[in-house]
Specification:
Helices cover 78% and strands 0% of the residues. The protein has 452 residues and is an all-alpha fold. Among the domains are: 99 residues, Serine Threonine Protein Phosphatase 5, Tetratricopeptide repeat (Alpha Horseshoe), CATH 1.25.40; 77 residues, Serine Threonine Protein Phosphatase 5, Tetratricopeptide repeat; 80 residues, Tetratricopeptide repeat domain (Serine Threonine Protein Phosphatase 5, Tetratricopeptide repeat), CATH 1.25.40.
Length: 452
């Protein structure tokens, strides 16, 4: 049921309530009867979109009868339409004061609170709505969205599942549940939801885009690229799709094509934080420390809440040997997103370089709990073991890093050091030569640089 239908239902109830209570026929028109008639006229104007005029009439009706439920509710809806959510909140709260136990009053109060970013209070109103009308699907949907904003993804997933059980043919329910599953790194579950979304509505480009993101997270780059090619054929200026395809291309080493997509996206939205972040990843892969730093700083100016931008800036400083400054940036990233895997991994790297091995080990334990297949996690643990002179353990970890990412140049360079310490000089020379050749190839790539 839509909010508009809810509004119509409750307005009909309110008019009925007012008329039955106050509207008995008398020889003279009472102020309440006048107020009811004015409120009806106001409602007609509101439905026509004449919001300001309708509010004037609702105000007049309320001045005649300060207990007229229909006028407060109608004015609340009108104020919502004007995005005056603070005013709408006052009106819906008054409705509840005048007549308790009406689910639409609580639902609309929840909507106003949500728009005012008072998410816990909004959830309380959605819960009250559900208590009063358990079959009202929109209450579950709105509650789940509020939970997502609070990053309570597991709870949101449960509520979306309840919504889906009530409205099994609505694609948006599966799509939003898929997003919450992505946030929890349940990629297999998310994939099922996006596929169901597409099954129900093949016109939703966004569903193809998110399915591509999930496949990319699962390292199914061919499937991801296919979906993104499909979206961009229909919508060549879709910035999200250009960014996502650029990310896929970076991951498969097609740096020229990635750069083309990302610079195209940047030309459409100059300060798009996601695109700037993906460009940062591109230059991270190319080991261009200076441009990685510049991009990260620019991204932070565009969106200071982007955790990965602070993380990337910190990593650039690690590469420059500025460990204390790097720690400040990494801590900012982790304050924004406490479970940011790369942030935890980079803090571990700083601790390794500063000889704080126990702290590094704690961060790496958290990294592997979040993502047991992170190649850079195994690289860092290999470095930690090398520093501790645990060469056999270091070799196991660096081999695992290369098993997960067979072109990880820094892992070849690190393994060369491990082999050297194990006295296996021929293997050390082979790995060192491989690392040097990879770096030479990266240095020979001359991409167009972004202009800020």
């Amino acid at each position: 049921m839509s909010c508009k239908v809810l509004a119509a239902l409750i307005l009909s109830f309110a008019l009925s309530f007012s008329a039955s209570t106050f509207g008995q026929s008398t020889s003279a028109v009472t102020p309440t009867e006048q107020a009811i008639q004015i409120a009806k006229e106001a409602e007609q104007l509101r439905e026509k979109g004449e919001i300001d005029r309708s509010i004037e009439l609702y105000n007049k009706a309320i001045s005649l009868d300060k207990s007229l439920l229909v006028a407060y509710f109608g004015r609340g809806l009108a104020r919502q339409a004007k995005k005056d959510f603070a005013g709408a909140l006052v009106d819906f709260t008054k409705c509840i004061e005048l007549k308790s136990g009406i689910y639409a009053f609580h639902f609309n109060k929840g909507e106003a609170l949500y728009e005012l970013k008072k998410y816990p209070e909004a959830i309380a109103e959605y819960d009250r709505t559900i208590e009063l009308e358990p079959a009202l699907s929109v209450s579950y949907y709105s509650k789940a969205i509020a939970l997502v904003v609070l990053r309570k993804y597991a709870e949101a997933e449960t509520v979306f599942s309840k919504f889906i059980s009530l409205v099994p043919d609505y694609p948006g329910g599966y799509f939003e549940r898929g997003r919450t599953r992505m946030a929890q790194r349940n990629y297999a579950g998310a994939l099922l939801d996006f596929e169901k979304t597409i099954e129900l509505d093949t016109s939703r480009s966004i569903a193809f885009l998110f399915r591509a993101r999930v496949n990319a997270a699962l390292k199914k780059y061919s499937e991801a690229r296919s979906d993104l090619d499909f979206v961009l054929k229909k919508e060549p200026d879709n910035v999200m799709a250009l960014d996502a395809r650029g990310s896929v291309l970076v991951n498969i080493g097609e740096y020229f094509a990635a750069s083309k997509d990302l610079l195209r996206a940047l030309s459409l939205e100059r300060d798009n934080g996601d695109v700037l972040n993906t460009l940062s990843v591109l230059y991270f892969r190319l080991e261009d420390t200076q441009l990685l730093r510049e991009l990260s700083e620019h991204t932070i100016k565009a969106d200071p809440t982007m955790a990965m931008a602070h993380n990337n800036l910190g990593y650039a400083k690690i590469l420059l040997g500025q460990f204390s400054d790097a720690r400040k940036d990494i801590e900012k990233a982790l304050k924004i997103e406490p479970d940011l895997i790369f942030g935890l991994n980079n803090r571990a790297l700083i601790n390794i370089h500063q000889g704080r091995f126990a702290e590094a080990e704690r961060d790496l334990s958290r990294v592997f709990a979040l993502d047991p297949k992170l190649s850079y996690g195994y690289y860092n643990r290999a470095l930690l073991n090398l520093k501790r002179r645990k060469y056999a353990a270091a070799l196991i970890d660096v081999n695992k890093a290369l098993e997960l990412e067979n072109d990880l140049r820094i892992a070849f360079a690190l393994r060369a050091q491990i082999f050297e310490n194990l006295g296996r000089r021929a293997e050390a020379e082979t790995d060192k030569a491989a690392a040097d050749e990879m770096l030479r190839k990266k240095r020979s790539i001359n991409l167009e640089r972004p202009r800020f």
